[in-house]
Amino acid sequence: MKKDDLKSLITQMYDNLIHNIENQDKVNKEQVISYLQESIDVISSLNEDKIDSIEEAKLAFNNRYQEIANKSISSYEFTNKRFEKLTQLHEETLNSCEETMIDIPIITEKFNDIQTHMLEEVKKANDIIAQLSNQVETLERDSNLDSLTKVFNRRALSTHLSHICSQKNITQELHLLILDIDDFKIINDTYGHIAGDKILIFVANILKKTLRDGDKIFRYGGEEFVILLNRIDEEHCKKITSRLLSLVSGNKPIYKGENINVTISIGSTMYDNTDTPDSFIDRADKGLYRAKTSGKNKMCSEKI
Fold first, then answer.
1. Residues 6+ apart with CB under 8 A from 206
2. Same domain, 85 and 117
């Protein structure tokens, strides 16, 4: 998607947000944050291979998101109004207690009634939250982006490789890299899974900043990433992998005031027109295995 298209889509998102805010009597910060988070999910789920114009992207955005956004904000508003009424009833009941003669059975009945209504409202709110959460999970499942690292996910890789291998007439050189974070389990065991997540984001950010716009990055699973380098010869492929190895090992992320040493190993191979998605990945995986077993923090290439 081009820069102007993205700017136009963000403008559409902004206009929708302003429209929803103006149509509500009361809107708080949490509702706006919820709107923006769900907007990210919808934009992530757009399939660039199938959307030919920004107008279609806007239509997809409106159709898939606006209904959830409206339900979310309006449900908050409805619940707030109901609790305002219950609070008022509660206050009136307390005021009645100031009278000299207090009718205990009536007061007890009123408080029981208030409690029943409040429990009903909490249940309704929880039901709505569960319903919206299921819709967000569906958007994430259908999305092509990994929710943690914001690179393409394994589902997107499968679709992309199937598309490549179906052509059978690719003339330009295409290299596939499998990158694995060395000793990732030790990092998790030593510093915890939050630190592990930060390391994954750290590596993904280096990949995004270092590679070209035409290259594609996928989180393959766990601590593994797959990279597709398009229109590049073997010499330049080696230079890129060498730079990635150097950047990851030379930059030490800090977690709770402590530097964490991070290195990666890479397996590389070049696409052949006889390849299937499985054979293409398996060949690179053999190179990764050799890199891991021969010392780590290196790249090994597997020939066709």
1. 244, 247, 248, 251
2. yes
